[in-house]
Design brief:
By secondary structure, this protein is of the alpha/beta class. It starts with 15 loop residues before the first helix and ends with a helix. It has 14 helices and ten strands. It has an eight-stranded parallel beta barrel with strand order 1-2-3-4-5-8-9-10, surrounded by eight helices. A two-stranded antiparallel ribbon has the order 6-7. Helix content is about 45%, strand content about 15%.
């Protein structure tokens, strides 16, 4: 990870919610590029350069791949979302690579949402928040995905750090995976669990709204549940919504539009595999192939921006 604080993007402090609103306006895009490197799906020029099973060699390949994507999409999209799990799978070398990727993205002017789904209570929750959130943190992420399962006292430490560092969190509310409903859709006292989480997020944003009308506590709501997305947009009017499930998981542009407010703000749509491995998609394979994988990423990102525009 970076050993020194990264330079600030703004001469005056700006809340994360307002930074995200500004980035969406500047790029004209609500696309979030998910950085989910997988060994078997890397383009051949990078995959074939790794001559062993050494985690350090693969970590360097992940770094080069993700930084290559960042170089392509900077200026085209407001943010990227590195998935910590793929880097953690390579051990310490992978985590060092993740640190380099976050730093490279920030220096390219992109907001960084680290997808770690962290959660705990008390001082441990504060330690997670201290580690990841804000430009002064060791990791330097602008935002972090967080699980709500341990309750209010597991989220408040994260929000407190967001207050002091102009950072944000995205709390899991209604996830895109088919099995998410096992707990999230269960009803108690006349509401589902996911509706109770949405109510808590709304409460956490009270008194914390920026000029954009949004607060630091955002939500994760899958594109695979468009009806629930519309209801949750209404239930959480002050929360940015991170929408996974677009593209490879089946979500369409029509499915994600209910997450936006009247000004075209309030939601960002994540796409990982269909963008970063675009060189392998049928529509791009013959045109670009592995040798021009970055051109394929650029074309796929442009197409997604047009679909969501």
């Amino acid at each position: 990870p970076p050993t020194a604080p990264l330079p600030s993007r703004h001469s005056t402090p700006m809340q994360f919610a307002d930074q995200l609103a500004e980035a969406v306006r500047n790029t004209g895009s609500i696309t979030c590029v998910g950085l989910d490197p997988r060994k078997s799906q890397l383009p051949a020029p990078i995959r074939d350069s790794v001559g062993s099973d050494d985690p350090g060699a693969w970590a360097d390949a992940y770094r080069r791949f993700c930084c290559g994507i960042i170089d392509v999409v900077a200026g085209m999209v407001p943010c990227v979302k590195p998935q910590a799990a793929f880097f953690e799978a390579l051990g310490p070398a992978g985590m060092v690579a993740l640190g380099h990727v976050i730093k490279h993205a920030r220096e390219a002017g992109l907001l960084v949402i680290t997808d770690g789904k962290r959660n705990d209570i008390g001082s441990t929750a504060t330690a997670y928040a201290d580690a990841y959130l804000g430009e002064r943190s060791p990791w330097g992420s602008d935002a972090l995905t967080v699980s709500p399962y341990l309750g209010r006292d597991s989220l408040e430490p994260f929000v407190d750090v967001c207050d002091s560092r102009d950072a944000g969190i995205f709390v899991l509310v209604k996830t895109s995976n088919p099995g998410g409903g096992l707990f999230q859709d269960r009803e108690t006292e006349g509401q589902t669990v996911y509706q109770a989480v949405a109510q808590l997020i709304r409460e956490l944003n009270q008194g914390r709204l920026g000029q954009s009308g949004y607060g630091p506590a955002g939500a994760v709501v899958g594109a695979t549940y468009p009806q629930q997305l519309q209801g949750l947009r209404e239930a959480m009017p002050s929360s940015w919504i991170l929408i996974p499930g677009f593209g490879a998981q089946g979500g369409s542009a029509a499915d994600v539009l209910p997450g936006l407010d009247a000004n075209g703000l309030g939601a960002i749509v994540n796409n990982s595999r269909h963008l970063i491995f675009a060189h392998a998609r049928e529509e791009f394979r013959d045109r670009f192939g592995d040798a021009r994988w970055q051109d394929a990423v650029a074309e796929a990102t442009k197409k997604m921006n047009e679909q969501l525009g």
